[in-house]
């Protein structure tokens, strides 16, 4: 089955796209052609979009699905006249929440992704810069300034997870790749030991690691299965010595791994200092 899906909003459309993707993920037997339509904030644009809906319906032989976050009643009414299955993602939540709070909603578009908290926005930007400047252990002396430090073998997912933690949570995330020198010594530098209370180790299945490394350096000893197995085996010995949390990234998304780190990070922050890992 093929269906066209429109993600529509008066503003960025990030909320419509995120919630829509979550719902569509439950229907993996359907092929969805996804169309991103932000800033549908005039009647003219809304009418043009209904024409695109009609074209999609005629092409597919079935009406398209529309995930929308529209606070403007006039524009929403125009879209509902289109040949589509329309789902308003705010409609079922804003009014009940307003009744519970006893406060009328602002009905201003773009509020969820606007810079409503300048201090936190600045913190996110600084965290992204920190993650980029402290990638791959280039500044071990800076690990003490990090909120979270990720440890793992090459290509285990450290960099994208650090950037995600910075972008979405404003955390200063650094990472340290276990090097050949570390394997020879069977240990990591003192700077890594000194931040054990904020250290998370990443592990990955050797077969998965081989595929990732093969894309980077095809046919190299670095990408061989035996090298991947050896690196991971030695890394796990270091993790056990450090006694830090270990997260398997093999079949988990960046979001899932980050959620585990955030949960553990918050729990650690709530513990008395004397009970944290030293």
From TrEMBL:
Pfam families linked: Kinase-PPPase
UniProt keyword annotation of S-adenosyl-L-methionine present: no
Binding site for ADP: 152-159
Catalysed reaction, written as an equation: [pyruvate, water dikinase] + ADP = [pyruvate, water dikinase]-phosphate + AMP + H(+); [pyruvate, water dikinase]-phosphate + phosphate + H(+) = [pyruvate, water dikinase] + diphosphate
One function term, GO molecular function aspect: protein serine/threonine kinase activity
Keywords per UniProt: Kinase, Nucleotide-binding, Serine/threonine-protein kinase, Transferase
Enzyme Commission identifier(s): 2.7.11.33, 2.7.4.28
SUPFAM superfamilies: P-loop containing nucleoside triphosphate hydrolases
Principal EC category: transferase
Highest taxon, organism lineage: Bacteria
Function: Bifunctional serine/threonine kinase and phosphorylase involved in the regulation of the phosphoenolpyruvate synthase (PEPS) by catalyzing its phosphorylation/dephosphorylation.
UniProt record similarity statement: Belongs to the pyruvate, phosphate/water dikinase regulatory protein family. PSRP subfamily.
UniProt name for this protein: Putative phosphoenolpyruvate synthase regulatory protein
Organism whose genome encodes this protein: Marichromatium gracile (Chromatium gracile)
